[in-house]
Every structure is written in structure tokens, then in C-alpha cells.
Amino acid sequence: MRNASLAETMDRVGFVQADPIRAPAPAQDLILRQRVSGYRAGDLDRAYPTLPLEEDYVYAYGFVTRPLRRFLHPRPTDDGDGPYQPRGLAAEVLAFVREHGVTHPRSLWEAFGRTRVVNGWGGQSAATTRVLEELHYYGLVRVARRENGVRLYEPAPPLDDPLDVSERAREVALLIARVLAPVPEASLRAALPRRLSRAAGGRGAVVRGLLATGALAATEVDGVRYLWPVDLAPAEGEPEERVRLLAPFDPVVWDRRRFEHLWGWAYRFEAYTPPAKRRLGYYALPLLWRDRVIGWANCARDPEGRLTVETGYVDGPPKARRFAVALGAEIARLETFLTPRGGRTVSRRPVPRAASAATPTPVR
């Protein structure tokens, strides 16, 4: 992980996954703080309108550089029967956005009513909001900006002549391989967009084609075949003696297959697990020490506004004093990251030692 500006980082990585849970900050901010110099929570949202970025779906929902849009769209429909054509309410909402420009979902409620439908999480959303998401998925509208976390949409620019679907599938596969490198071959196949891959002959065919042309390099470790774009050079040298508290969706830990192979234990994201069944915590952040994930941390604000960080370890914390120093430095960096620009937190007192060194029962 190297630090750079936000624009440089997005141009280099191409895609950053997003998640709205703030514990202590959205996933996209937690991911970028490890890679962007001086990054603060919310910087991506603030800069988004001025950067060549789009919110879109790759292997998950997130932020993608605008030049990659031509590989993601037009998206095949589930039935494969030609390009997506909005009908009924979708056609009316698209016409409204094209007429009015940047549109808040609230404006659609006022124009079309607030009929409720089941959303992708099993809850209830306004039908017009679901239609906006559908139009966005198929590339007819784009996210213009966010207002208090709410996405505002505007008409998407028209695409140039669509590229060949096989070329698009290859480029998307290379993007995913670059973000997650090195990635187990089975994980890369599973992460490829189903509809796009199917139109290009299937996920296996896409990956085999990239291996055959030499665009992907491969090696086998303990019977697991790892892939990465051939232009990526493996890192060399000793890892930094540094602690990093990673987002649950950080590319370093995103693939659970690779996670368990490299570090020998199972990390689980438990925000949607019933509290009584959680083993790590609501939003446990994987704890990376040097080049190994050795535990996890849960972060919160106490009633006085202080940041508290409770850590857990698979085999207990390292005994070396340099680890304790590195953990304290990472907690201080996290506190700065969470401090609003131009403002300050309720309290700047250090995290109590007990809170930053708690050791729950190890998990295996």
C-alpha cells in the first residue's frame, strides 16, 4: 500500500467498493485512507463531482474511473433479448430526469407518489427509487453527487459505439484481477459479472482466454492457482512494521478464500448476523500487522466522544513493544481520519489502554 493523491489512487486502482455502514466510517473511506495521503472521512464524496468517476457495479457496488464505463455498458439483460428498454414507470422516471436534470428521489415521490416495493435487502423502498436504481444499473442515468448520503441522479452521457462483448468481458476481468491481485482463479471466475461473461462465452472462457494471451500471469501455491495482470510486479523487501485497521471490503481481505489460505483463519463480516451469534463484532476491522492479518478491531465513540478501539487476536497479540507502538500509531491515524476538516472531534484524549488492548477469546 502506497500513499498518493485521491485522483492518482483512483486512476491507479480503477475501482473502490462502497458500503454505507459507518462503523466508524463507510467502507470506501476506510479503504482509501490506507492509500491516499492525508485522507479524511468523506473526502471521496466531496471530491466526486469534480473527478472523472462514476458510481457503478463491478464485482460489487462502488466507485469506478469514468474511462472504464465503456467496458461495463451496455449491460445485457437477464433474458438476453436485446438491450434494456425502460417501460412503464421506468420510462416515465427517465423522461422526468432528462427534463429536470439533477434529481433528488424526493422530487420523484412528489411527482409519482410513494408506492412502496420490496428492495434488495428485504426492506421497503419507494417504487421510484427502485426504478432509479434500475436505470442507473443499465447506464441510462448516473449519480451526479450525494446530499446527506442520498444519491442525486442526472442523465448519463450516451455511450459511443458499444465495444465487442468479448473485449469488454476481458477488460472487466483484468480490472477485477488488478484490484484483488493476486487472486485465486476460482475467486476471479466467481467475481466476474454473470451476464457479461455469459454473453462472452462464460466465466471460464474469459479467464482461459486471458491466460492464453499472456495478459494474466499464474502460479500455484499449496494447490491454489493465483492470477494477476502480467504488468503488475510482485512486491519485494521486508514489510513495514506497521499496523493497519482495514475495511471488511478492503481488497487485501475481500476474498475470503485467499484470506483463509494466507492467514489460516476465517474472518466473517457480521453486521447482518444476529448479535447473539457474532464472534468478532458488528463491524470488525481486520488487523494487519506487517504482512499478516492477526486479529480484528471494533471501533466506537464512548459517551464523551472518545474513540474506543477494542482488539481481538487469533493467537494473542504480539509481545514485542514495537507492535504496541504501531497499534497506538494506527489508532491515532484513525482518530485524525475521523476528524472533520476544519473542525475537531468532541474529545481528542487518547484511547484508554484497556480499550485498545482488550483480547476476546481467540477464534479458529
Give a summary of the structure in a few sentences.
The protein is α+β, with helices and mostly antiparallel strands. It has helices spanning about 5-15, 25-30, 45, 70, 90-100, 105-110, 125-135, 165-180, 185-190, 195-200, 205-215, 255-265, 320-340, 355; strands at about 15, 55, 60-65, 115-120, 125, 140-145, 150-155, 185, 215-220, 225-230, 245, 285-290, 290-300, 305-315. It has three domains: about 90-155, Arc Repressor Mutant, subunit A, CATH 1.10.10; about 165-235, Orthogonal Bundle (Arc Repressor Mutant, subunit A), CATH 1.10.10; about 245-355.
Search tags:
single chain, 364 residues, alpha+beta, Arc Repressor Mutant, subunit A, 3 domains, four-stranded antiparallel sheet, three-stranded antiparallel sheet, 34% helix, globular
Instruction: Report the order of strands and helices.
Output: HEHHEEHHHEEHEEHEHHHEEEHEEEHH
Q: Summarize the amount of helix as a percent range.
A: 25-40%
The strands making up the biggest β-sheet line up spatially as 11-12-13-14
Low-confidence stretches: 345-364
Q: Report, as a whole number of angstroms, the end-to-end distance.
A: 27 Å
Q: Please give the number of β-strands.
A: 14
Global structural class = alpha+beta
Give the radius of gyration.
Answer: 22 Å
* Main beta sheet: 4 strands, antiparallel
The global form is globular
Mean pLDDT comes to 90
Number of helices: 14
How many distinct domains?
A: 3
Beta fraction of the residues? 15-25%
